[in-house]
UniProtKB/TrEMBL annotation:
Name of the protein in question: Anion permease
Residue stretches spanning the membrane: 9-26, 32-48, 79-101, 113-132, 178-200, 220-243, 275-294, 300-317, 329-353, 365-384, 396-422, 451-470
Alphabetized InterPro entries for the sequence: CitT-rel, SLC13A/DASS
Any one Gene Ontology molecular-function term assigned to this protein's record: transmembrane transporter activity
Family per record: Belongs to the SLC13A/DASS transporter (TC 2.A.47) family. DIT1 subfamily.
Organism encoding this protein: Chitinophaga fulva
Pfam families: Na_sulph_symp (PF00939)
Compartments, as annotated in UniProt: Membrane
Record's keyword terms, sorted: Membrane, Transmembrane, Transmembrane helix
Source species taxonomy: Bacteria, Pseudomonadati, Bacteroidota, Chitinophagia, Chitinophagales
Membrane topology: Multi-pass membrane protein
Main location: membrane
Any Gene Ontology CC annotation: membrane
Length: 476
């Protein structure tokens, strides 16, 4: 969004001023309380879409520096601390991964992978859904923008396939023929793969950062290992469940493999830059998986991949400069991470967790655990951004859970996994949601109905089956 919505911005400012003027509760320093006012008003502005996330974030950084909440009476140190997260390795992991993702789009490798899967699985509408989902799965580890992955690579191919079978956005009578089913399936497969990999969507490394602030270390491999079984089951089950609750009228899509083969023929043989992109992808995966063994950090791995693509000329510096999504993400990510991190170090998060601990009394952690996760999951109805949700609630909910005895690594991972799959609830719940919903293939009531039913499926698979898998891994 480019415009400023001044009525919403005014509401945001008033909200922040009111919190600022309220005397801080006993046990909370004025600096922590005033930072909370800036933080919550920023989150509200993002929810209300008062301005772009970048604009809201720059306002927040300015207010933090100007107010001196991080270093009272020391303007120089205040601005340094307000900008401190721009040097955080987690921020740059996401930014660099955006640049790497540009290689998949520029070389056409992402599109080729999608057509290969359609050629193999696309003889039925259900198979077509699996083919598109598996293409998303292959791309997900190195394409952290699930909006770019879903909206930029998968969605255009999905829409083309639907239209080729007579399911046209402009004709509502044809929506249920194929387009509606493929829309919901492709979107949800995107959410599953977002939860499977630490680098699957932008908010996941934010969870990693906040967990580290509370003494919990999550690596790329530990995240993947914990998510593997519930995510694999979700990939198998969700398209089939949708096939039953929102079935396509067209069951057979026998021409799809031929269409995919024709598209691949038009693309020609795999060219040099695609091979180089594939090699970079393999290098990234190997180093992310084995990084713990060789002491190579995930961000260092991303830098290696980017440098390889630049030196091989798959990407040039103009590609890096023009990747607006990456630079945008670095800015607003840095602002949100900075404020959330200092809320912890200034004592607000520990104070809040102790307050909740007193309220829940002697509740057993096995009772508290599902309550915390379910509240966190379904509160996503009020958020139009997974990142805003994570920034606003992840640290607090994790701290509360730890304070009542929930194993920290278990809760940190499960709340992190929610950051992808809770997007199923609404047509605005995750980055690619407006892209897929904008196809007009699925009516609003159907989207919400299917989203709620699928949320139950996800909870059963991740909290039920997943719990057994995590016990095997020794996470709890």
């Amino acid at each position: 969004m480019k415009e400023i919505k001044y009525p919403q911005l005014l509401i945001t400012v008033i909200f922040g001023v009111v919190i600022w003027l309220i005397p801080p509760p006993a046990g909370v320093t004025p600096e922590a309380w005033h930072l909370l006012a800036i933080f919550l008003s920023t989150i509200l502005g993002i929810i209300l879409k008062a301005a772009s996330m970048g604009t809201m974030s720059m306002m927040a950084i300015t207010l933090v520096a100007l107010s001196g909440v991080l270093a009272p009476g020391n303007p120089g140190k205040s601005i340094t601390l307000a900008l401190s997260s721009f040097g955080d390795k987690v921020i740059w992991l996401i930014g660099i991964s955006f640049f790497i993702a540009r290689g998949f789009i520029k070389t056409g490798l992402g599109k080729r992978i999608a057509y290969i899967f359609i050629r193999i699985f696309g003889k039925s509408s259900l198979g077509l859904a699996y083919g598109l989902g598996l293409a998303d799965l292959v791309l997900a580890p190195a394409v952290p923008s699930n909006t770019a992955r879903g909206g930029g690579i998968i969605y255009p191919i999905m829409k083309s396939m639907a239209m080729n079978f007579g399911s046209v956005p402009e004709d509502p009578a044809t929506h249920r023929k194929l387009g509606g089913y493929l829309t919901l399936s492709s979107y949800n497969m995107n959410l599953i793969t977002s939860s499977l990999f630490l680098t699957g969507t932008a908010s996941n490394p934010m969870c990693q950062k906040f967990a580290r602030n509370l003494g919990i270390e999550i690596t790329w491999m530990s995240w993947f290992a914990a998510a593997l079984v519930p995510a694999a089951l979700s990939i198998v089950v969700v398209p089939y469940v949708l096939y039953k609750i929102y079935p396509p009228e067209l069951k057979s899509t026998g021409d799809a493999p031929a269409m995919a083969a024709e598209k691949l023929k038009e693309m020609g043989p795999v060219h040099k830059n695609e091979w180089l992109m594939l090699l970079a992808f393999v290098i990234l995966l190997v180093l992310w998986i084995t990084g713990d063994l060789f002491g190579i950090d995930a961000t260092t791995t991303a830098l290696i991949g980017l440098v390889f693509l630049l030196l091989s000329q798959v990407l040039d510096w103009e590609d890096v400069k023009s990747e607006k999504g990456a630079w945008d993400t670095i800015v607003w990510f840095s602002a949100l991470v900075m404020m959330a991190s200092f809320l912890n170090s200034l004592g607000f998060i520990p104070w809040f967790s102790e307050l909740i601990k007193k309220q829940v009394g002697g509740m057993q952690w096995m009772v508290a655990f599902p309550i915390i996760v379910l509240v966190y999951f379904y509160s996503h109805y009020i958020f139009a951004s997974a990142t805003a949700h994570v920034a606003a609630m992840y640290s607090a909910f994790l701290a509360v859970g730890i304070s009542v005895g929930v194993p920290g690594t278990l809760l940190a991972l499960v709340l992190g996994f929610c950051g992808g799959i809770f997007g199923t609830l609404t047509h605005y719940g995750h980055g690619p949601a407006p892209v897929f919903f904008g196809s007009t293939y699925v009516e609003l009531k159907d989207w919400w109905k299917c989203g709620f039913l699928l949320s139950i499926v996800y909870i059963i698979l991740w909290m039920g089956v997943g719990a057994g898998w995590w016990k095997v891994l020794g996470i709890w």
